[in-house]
Amino acid sequence: MYAIIKTGGKQYTVAVGDKVKVETLPGDVGSQIKLVEVLAVKNDEGLKLGNPTIPGAFVTATVLSEGRHEKVRIFKFRRRKHSMKSAGHRQNYTELKIDEISA
Q: Secretion signal: which residues (predicted)?
């Protein structure tokens, strides 16, 4: 059984027991979060699609940690102009452990 959820403007395929890093969500480490934007659920009976979401479906997850991804280097260079620009970016994330999928 798996589900496709939407959070932080991105879509993730999750199953019970999976660990997934998503965009920062409010909540303390160890607390439970209920994700209600479930786009699809695949179980023994078949695939159930939402339009755009499945009403009444949710995914329960536990917050494992919060952190920052590796640094992404940004480098811009203009040839023959003696112009260079360098920057970096680290995106925040929340790591979740999927506990339950309810359709």
A: none
Following DSSP, what letter does each residue of 25-87 receive, concatenated? Answer: -S--TT-EEEE--EEEEEETTEEEE-SSS-TT-EEEEEEEEEEE-PPEEEEEEETTTTEEEEE
Q: CA angle, 94 as apex, 89 and 100 as ends, to 5°?
A: 150
Cis check for the bond before 26: say yes or no (omega within 30 of 0): no
- In a 3-state reduction of DSSP, which class is residue 92? strand
Length of the chain equals: 103
Whether residue 59 has pLDDT greater than 90: yes
pLDDT digits (tens, 9 = 90+) for 15-39: 999 999 999 999 999 999 999 999 9
Residue 61 Cα to chain centre, angstroms? 11
Within 10 angstroms of residue 38's Cβ, the number of other Cβ atoms is: 23
| Selection from 87, 66, 64 nearest residue 75 by Cα | 87
